[in-house]
Write a structure and sequence with these properties.
- The protein is an alpha/beta fold and about 475 residues long.
- It has 16 helices and 8 strands.
- It has an 8-stranded mixed beta sheet with strand order 3-4-2-5-1-6-7-8, sandwiched between helices.
- The N terminus is likely disordered.
C-alpha cells in the first residue's frame, strides 16, 4: 500500500507531518524557495534522477537525495479518474554536480570503551599529628573519646577546617547576663633572691629559779577572791600590834597600789592614827559612825568620795587609815552591831582591811572583829610574857568556837633588838605547832623611836622581811 491510496479504495490521507520534517532534513534545510521550485518543476519535468550510491554501513545519512514516488503496485488497479501524485515533487532545477564525488563513506566510530571500574580507595589513614605552632596552645580534645573524629568532608577537602563562628558582641552578652570581662594578666613580680641567712643557733639555758622575793610579790598581786579582813591580835600590850598593822598595810599597798586600809579598832585610846597617815583632818571612827546611815546608802564613786572625808592617807598614797577615837568614853558606842556595819562598809571600798584590835578580849568590838576576820595574825616579841599571852588567846578562841581561825593563824615575831636570842628559836618551834605558819621580821632602828612610820625609810632587809610575811598572810586567798 502506498501513500496515494488505501487498501480499501479510499482516497489517501495526507502524509504525516513527521515525514515532511524528515524530507526537509534531507533537503539540507532549504526553506522559502521550495514553493517556487515546485511550480517550475511542474512546468518543466526533469528526467528521472540517477540512482545515488548508497552508504555501505553506518547509522547516519551520507548524502541528500530527492524523494521519488514509489511505483504503484500492479496488483492493485488504479481507480479511474484518480491520478497518482507524488507526495512531493522533485525540484527540476536541481542537478547533481558531476564533479561531486559524494561524501566519503561514514566511518563508524570505534566501539565505546567502558570506563574501567573505579579502584577502591585505600583505607583512610589518619593524618599525622602536627606539632602546634609556637605561641599557640594545643586545642582541647573534643568529646569524651581519646581522639577527636573529624568530619568526613573535612578529610575529603584535604584537612579543611571551617572558620570559627564570629564572636558575639559584648553588649549582646551583657543583655543575656553571660558577659564576663577578660581578666587582665597580672605581671609576676621580679624574683629577688633573699639574702642567705645562716640558721640561728639556739642555746638552751635552764630558767633561773624564781627568787623568794619574786614569789612573795607575785602572791600579793593576785586576785584574792573578794575583800579580806586581817585581824592583828594579842591581849598583851607592847607586842607591836600597831606597828605590825601599819607595816602590813604599807607592804601590801606598795605592791597592789590601792585598795588597802588600816583601821584602829582599839577601844582604849589607840595610837595608829598618830603613827600612820597624814593628819590632814581630825576625823576618826566616831565621826564616821555619826554619819554612817547617810554613807551606807551611797554607791560606787559617790561612796568613795564621801568616805574619803573620814580617812587619812599614807604619805606615798599606798594605803588609807581609819583612826580610832582618843576619848575613852567612846568605847561604849562600839557595840557588835556597829562594828559589823563599819566592816561591811569597808569591804565595799577596799580589798585588804588590816584591823588593830584592842587588849580587851571580852569587849564586843574585839569579838566581832575575830568572828569577821579571814586571817588571824598573832603578834608577839621574843619574850616569855608576850608569848604566854598569845598562847592563852589561842586557847580562848578554841573555847569560843573559833578553833579553825586559831589553827590557820600566822604567828608574827618582831625583833625589838638586833641579833638573835635563844628564846626566839624556842618560840618559833612552839608556835609552829599551834598555828599555820611563823614569820619573823628583823629589827629596824627607824621603828625604835615609836614615831610616824615611813615605809620607804626602812632598811632593805626590813622591807624584804615584811614582804615575805605579808605574802604568808594572803597566800591562802591568792587565785
Amino acid at each position: 500500500m502506498d501513500g496515494s491510496e488505501t487498501g480499501w479504495g479510499r482516497q489517501a490521507e495526507p502524509a504525516p507531518r513527521w515525514r515532511a520534517l524528515l524530507d526537509r532534513a534531507r533537503l539540507a534545510g532549504r526553506g522559502a524557495e521550495h514553493h517556487d521550485v515546485d511550480h517550475r518543476a511542474e512546468e518543466n519535468p526533469a528526467p528521472p534522477p540517477e540512482t545515488l550510491p548508497r552508504r555501505a554501513a553506518g547509522t547516519g545519512w551520507t548524502g541528500r537525495a530527492q524523494a521519488v514516488a514509489r511505483p504503484a503496485d500492479p496488483s492493485f488497479g488504479a481507480e479511474p479518474a484518480y491520478r497518482v501524485e507524488a507526495t512531493y515533487r522533485v525540484e527540476p532545477a536541481y542537478r547533481v554536480d558531476p564533479r561531486y564525488g559524494g561524501e566519503p563513506a561514514y566511518q563508524a566510530e570505534p566501539a565505546y570503551r567502558a570506563e574501567p571500574e573505579p579502584r577502591a580507595e585505600p583505607s583512610w589513614r589518619a593524618e599525622p599529628v602536627r606539632p602546634p605552632e609556637p605561641g599557640y596552645p594545643e586545642p582541647p580534645p573534643r568529646g569524651r573519646g581519646t581522639a577527636s573524629v573529624e568530619s568526613r568532608y573535612a578529610l575529603l577537602d584535604g584537612g579543611y577546617q571551617p572558620d570559627p563562628p564570629p564572636a558575639e558582641s559584648r553588649y549582646a552578652l551583657l543583655d543575656r547576663g553571660r558577659y564576663r570581662p577578660e581578666a587582665q594578666p597580672v605581671p609576676e613580680p621580679a624574683r629577688i633572691e633573699p639574702p642567705r641567712i645562716e640558721p640561728a643557733r639556739v642555746e638552751w639555758r635552764a630558767p633561773e629559779p624564781e627568787t623568794e622575793l619574786e614569789r612573795a610579790a607575785g602572791v600579793l598581786r593576785r586576785e584574792l577572791g573578794g575583800p579580806r579582813v586581817l585581824a592583828f591580835a594579842n591581849p598583851k600590850g607592847g607586842v607591836h600590834k600597831t606597828t605590825a598593822t601599819v607595816l602590813a598595810a604599807a607592804t601590801v599597798g606598795s605592791v597592789r597600789g590601792r585598795g588597802v586600809l588600816a583601821w584602829d579598832d582599839n577601844e582604849l585610846r589607840g595610837t595608829l592614827g598618830l603613827r600612820a597617815g597624814s593628819a590632814r583632818h581630825a576625823r576618826t571612827i566616831r565621826h564616821l559612825i555619826h554619819d554612817l546611815a547617810q554613807i551606807e546608802i551611797l554607791e560606787g564613786a559617790t561612796l568613795l568620795e564621801h568616805l574619803d572625808d573620814y580617812l587619812r592617807h599614807a604619805s606615798d598614797g599606798s594605803y588609807d587609815v581609819l583612826a580610832g577615837e582618843e576619848s575613852p568614853r567612846f568605847a561604849q558606842r562600839l557595840d557588835q552591831f556597829t562594828v559589823k556595819r563599819v566592816l561591811e562598809l569597808l569591804r565595799r571600798t577596799h580589798d585588804v582591811i588590816c584591823v588593830d584590835t584592842g587588849n580587851n578580849v571580852e569587849s564586843p568590838n574585839w569579838r566581832t572583829v575575830m568572828q569577821a576576820a579571814d586571817q588571824l595574825v598573832v603578834t608577839t616579841v621574843p619574850r616569855e610574857d608576850a608569848a604566854f599571852s598569845a598562847d592563852w588567846m589561842l586557847d580562848l578562841l578554841h573555847e569560843e568556837g573559833m578553833g579553825e581561825l586559831a589553827d590557820n593563824a600566822v604567828t608574827l615575831i618582831s625583833c625589838p633588838t638586833p641579833g638573835r636570842t635563844p628564846l626566839q628559836d624556842d618560840l618559833e618551834r612552839h608556835f609552829a605547832t599551834r598555828t599555820r605558819a611563823v614569820a619573823v621580821v628583823p629589827y629596824d632602828p627607824a621603828l625604835e623611836t615609836g614615831s610616824s612610820i615611813e615605809y620607804h625609810q626602812l632598811q632593805a632587809e626590813t622591807r624584804q622581811g615584811w614582804l615575805k610575811a605579808a605574802s604568808v598572810m594572803l597566800e591562802p586567798f591568792a587565785r
